[in-house]
Structures are given as structure tokens and as C-alpha cells.
């Protein structure tokens, strides 16, 4: 079917947005819509202009024979602040306090709309790093990693917390959790990650950073280069973590079981302020 | 900024597609774009017509005061067959055979593009069921559940395979895995699922169906109504599973470690053929 401009624009917008970071050649669209290159170029410049003006992400054009056009989800600083502030408000609910002073966050992490927003924030943070993989550790890191990876068009690799893994030979390390000083095991299938890959790490929570430190140690067995670490939440204490370069979205200052009080705030690093 | 039709259409398409199943009132758009109701209605009917003609999903209009418009991702039978056939081809690679006759599928499940397609297939399958939650069990079920839930705008609930769960009081059951006859534990936090919810289950793999049976037992403790079960892959043997109503996308006929041979095929149920 031969489409008019406004019709073609619907279909092209859908195609680009459905597959973030996927490069489509101009030929893909000229053939699909039986339209001239100049026509498609004009369609694309309208889409690009509107998405930019409405802060809905970026259309990037790459010229040359291997070139094409792709959609890059980007959140503005204002958007990020809004999402993180909303999350903080939700997390401040004292009903979230669990026995032992833990905070119930599973519902947020497993809400697709919420976690997709979190993923887009990390994707914005990692946009210029040219990573090959998004790495996480089961279980609650997985939805965040998948959302981040979807916004970056990268595969996820999930480190296992045991070694009962039916994935061929695995590399395992023992690590000491920074907060409870327990010895745990984490494993990664040899075939999951090729050597000397460039990776970013995401996880849900950082207390002392023992798990993150363990992930760095395990990844060094694969000679991976870790470009950045993103965590949804970190605790204010201990201030000095076992890893140094990471970005958190939210800082947990206090979970007081007795007073039924939760104090959380947007992290300075994500708001672009220096700590 | 006052937009022209082709420009408005880009923004409206983006808003609808980004949040499947989310109902947007017409007022949302008339205010955002400072346009008359009739103008927005016409924009929407163009978007609806194009998405339908290009098999890109459905725009549903719900009339009345609480009404509005929403995007429903739907895959056609032809699309589903294509995705499943491609998956089968990928899975037939003898490099996927792991010691013990297991099949390596982690890379597919953790590839956002692939798992989002799988999620849209299950969302199409479950579209009319009016479920409240998508339920899965860690670890490899999680990406599939999240992709399905994203296409349906539903929360995911992930059952844990241990009971070292920091989520308040949990309900745990012991279950016998149908194939290896081992006793395992699965747990779900009491607060995760309200009683008498309507749910659909998704998982990556079904052999004898012991895990699925365990999930049904655990969910019955929450008085949940299980509307359907979807699994990415099932083994042809044993033919009789411990659960009866489920849909699989792919059937594994044989993984022969000695001959280095994998035989998989699209499931009859997903192709609309009776077994």
C-alpha cells in the first residue's frame, strides 16, 4: 500500500522506537514504503525534530554506505529528576519496612512501566560508553538490567548466585558480603562472556559494595573492562564502599523499624551535583 | 509549540507505543497539543489505520467518560510463525548442546530484542484473559515474564526458588521436580500477591511439568485463579505432563549429545493446529 506522509510517519516512528539503537538503512524505508530517498529523508527530519522538541529521545543519522538512522532513548535531566523524585516518594512509605529493617522494593522493580523508566535513565548515563554487555546478578538486578539493555540494544548477562548452573563450565568465585560478612559464591558460564568485552554493571542495591566488588573480581577472570556501575539504591552508611566508581539513583539515609520511618533522597550524582 | 498534523502524529504514536495498554484520555492529547478534539480524533484514526494495515498492533478506542485510547501490541499468526521458526533455527545449532544433554538458551532469553518478541507473542495469547499479574519463577523465567508484562501493562511476580527471602513473611511449598525427582522449595512473599487475583504464568522450559505443578499449588495458597500457562519450550517426552492446560512455543524432540544433534520444531498449539 502506498502511504501518504502522515501515514508513513506513523509506521516509521513505530519501527524506529520499537528497536532502540538498531540502525536502519534509508533503503529499508524506501523499499518498504515505495518512496524516494528524498521523501523518506524529509519524513525522518520531521520525526527527529518532533522527538527532540518534545524531549522524547533522539534520532541519529549516520552517513556513508554502512550508515542509516536509529532511535536513541534519552532522558533529560528534568525527566530523570522527576522519575527519581517520584520513586523516593513511593519508597518513603513506612509500609515498605520489612522485619530486620529491610525495604520492600520488589513491586517497583517488577513493574514494567517503572523499571523501563529506570532502564532509560541508566541507558542515558551509559550512552557514550560503547559497552558490549549489560551485566547484573540475580534476582532483582535482572529486570533493571533488561530494561537498561533494551534501551541500549545490548545483551544482558546475569551472574548466578550459586554454581548449580546447567550452562557448561563456569567460573566461580567466593566473595565476602560487605555488610553481613558472609561468604557467598557467584558464578558465570564461560561461554556467556567472551574475553576482553567492555561491560556496564547494574544492580538494585548497594550497601557496603561487597557484591559489586565480587562482580568486578569475577569479571576480571574474563578480562572484561568495566566501564561503569549503576545501582538503583545505595545506603548512606557505610559512606566508603568497597568499589569507588558507581552511580546510584537513590540514597537510603535511614530505615527505622521502631519509629516506622524511611528517609530516602535522590542521589547527588544523578542530579548532576557533586557530593 | 503548536504542531502540524504530521508532527502531532509522531508524538502521539510515541506516547501510545511507549506504554502498551495504558489508557490515555482524549483530553490528555487536546491539552498537550492545544488542538481540538476532532483534530486529535482524526490523528488517532490515521494512526489506527496505519498500524492495522502494517500489522503493527491495534489502537483501541474506549468511549464514555472513563474512556480513551490505548495501544495493544498484537502479533499476527504469520508474525508468530516467523519468530518461532527463526528461534527454532537458532536453537538447532549443535553448539548449544551442554554436557548432560541440556540446551544453552540463556543468550536468547537475555537478548532484549528476542525476548520482547517472545513477550508480545504471549501477550497476544493472553490478550482476552483480563489477568491481574504475570507470574514466573526465577531465574530464566524473569526476562520472559517482564517482556510479556510490558506488552500487557501488568506487574510481574517472581516466585523464589529458596526461602532466604528478605520480603517479610513468605508462603513456601516443597515440590518434586517431575524429571529428576528431587525435592525443591519455592516461596512467595505474602504481600506480593493479594488473594483471589487472576494470573497468567510464563516460564522458559517445561519437561515433566513438576515446577509448573508446584507453582499451581503455591498459587492456590493465595486463592489465585490461573487463567493460562505459557512456556517458551517443552520437551516432547514425557508426553503427559503434570499440568494439562498450557501453551508452548517450541517443542524439543531430541538433544543427542553423542551425535551432536538437536531437533526442535514450532509447537502445534502456537501455530493454531490441534495436536
Automatic annotation (TrEMBL), chains A, B:
Keywords: DNA-binding, Transcription, Transcription regulation
Domain Phosphoribosyltransferase, first and last residues per copy: 115-250
Biological-process GO terms, alphabetical: negative regulation of DNA-templated transcription; negative regulation of purine nucleobase metabolic process
CDD domains: PRTases_typeI
Domain Bacterial purine repressor N-terminal stretches: 4-73
Alphabetized GO MF terms: DNA binding
Entry-linked InterPro entries: PRTase-like (IPR029057), PRTase_dom (IPR000836), Pur/Pyrimidine_PRTase (IPR050118), PuR_N (IPR015265), PurR_Bsub (IPR010078), WH-like_DNA-bd_sf (IPR036388), WH_DNA-bd_sf (IPR036390)
Top-level lineage group: Bacteria
Record family assignment: Belongs to the purine/pyrimidine phosphoribosyltransferase family. PurR subfamily.
Assembly, per entry: Homodimer.
Name under which the protein is recorded: Pur operon repressor
Organism: Acetohalobium arabaticum (strain ATCC 49924 / DSM 5501 / Z-7288)
Lineage per the UniProt record: Bacteria, Bacillati, Bacillota, Clostridia, Halanaerobiales
